[in-house]
Amino acid sequence: MTQGTASPEVLRRSRHLSTFAHQGAVYLYHDLYGYLLQMSPDLLGLLDAFTEPSKASELCVRYADAFEGQAPQQFVDIFYQHACLVEPDDDEVAGIWPMIAFKGKWNVWRRHGDRVTLWTAWGDRPIARVELDPAETAMWDAFDGEVRLNELRARHDARTLQALVVRLAHSDVQAIKLSAFPASMYAKRPAMAPRYLASTMPYRAWRPGEPLAAPVRDVATDDYYQDVADADAQFDHRETTLSHLFREPHPALGGRTYGGALVDALAAQGRLPARAVRVIEIGAGLGYVARAVCEALAGRGLEVSYTIQELSPALAAAQRTRTAGLPVTVREGDVLTADLPADAFDLIIANEMVGDLPAEQHSRTEVGMDADGGGEVDPVKLAGLGRAGQLVDELGISLTDAPEPFYLLTGALELVIRIARWLAPDGTAIVTEFGERAMWPRLSSHLDHPELSTHFGHLLQAAQARGLGGQIDFVMDLIDLDRSLEGLATTRSHFRALRAMLADAGVDLPKLGYTRELLAARLAGKVELAEIGELRWDRIEDRLMGLVPHEFKALVVRKPSGN
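The structure assignment produced for this chain is given below.
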């Protein structure tokens, strides 16, 4: 790496680069070092102009007007600093020797005596095994984030070591990253640690000229959910929910399931009717919550009538199978156009689904405010936003603190309006999702479809504007989650690779919120935890599998008996 050095005049593109794309963004991955750069396609065009050795000054003149007033030379310098551009006669592979090898985050491997086997499953790419022989395993063990490769080649065969580094650093494997500085320095100065050392690239490979999705503006996932083909894979791999991790009795819930804990919370707050309860769940996933809630309510002696409103035909089929024999009716169709009677339900559950409802992106200037803060909303311009403007006006939502640009959760606000109509007097609704009390929605980039975090303050304001009373709670507090336990931390790709590795050992590993004890019990007699690398454990409130439980909030509202 040549960070901080001015770039030479004549440069060529590195021969060790791979490109990826996701939600309109392009990512450049350096297959020798693990460097990761996000950029727009036009910047990649500048880099590709150096495919043959070229004068930087001449190409900067050619691209002088290509980057909205930004000088091309600054990008040339960045590419050079990250070894994406190199001098024509550079031996790129030889440049690794002064570097230090770090084991990449979210690796999966298993040790068999003096050999290690790694598994990779980045994104939706095929699962792959990487077998290391005893000599390579000894080198793998020496990659400790402290010792430079120059020192390691004095102890190991240099040719084998070089080939191993090239193999393991590649984006196909991502098992190691190279750094100019040791881990001990970053430990003392965490803010200095480069992000690429902990980053991975799970997105699809992309080449210039191939179609590139437009950057996400408005969010609408109706077609996405209607096209779901594999219901189980949808929640085991693509978008695991908090309730899915707790669908089986769990020690963090005192041996209860998520649905059972939810009913206990309602009972403790005096929110359950005395004899009969009419429930509707909106977007019920695989039906685990519906089954658990039905059983828990019946266990309290209540007569239950349970309706599910589901957009996805595949998920509706799974729900019917999972709730067979229970008083559950599954209705198919969009909840925002569903014809449901007023005052019809004592309990409404919308569990981890409002982030998938339609949303619109707008700018401050569209409504008359200054882009960089200040200014007042122009009522005429607000009306020009159509239904989104009507919602802001009718519900009294303030835009003064909106970022530039901002998302309006139009679908979630519409749902709250409908909930207020469908709730029976004294009825309760629970809306859960990841988000914050007062933070504007932000787009998630880790899923295979766009999804927004939730501004719960806006949802509460909408509920109050429609006559409901309530509050915003942490889901952890609502279900009385034991925060003192540690849970397994993964990413989607890490868990998929771990699952494949254990399947080779005859272990089925469903997607659950594993504690050490739960995972050890699942592996008993087949695999020892100590054989597996790399298992990461964290406080269950901070990270569980790929989720951050403390980010999940619940809007809990009640309809007064007089309405």
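Interim note for the steering committee: The radius of gyration is 27 Å. The longest strand covers residues 423-436.
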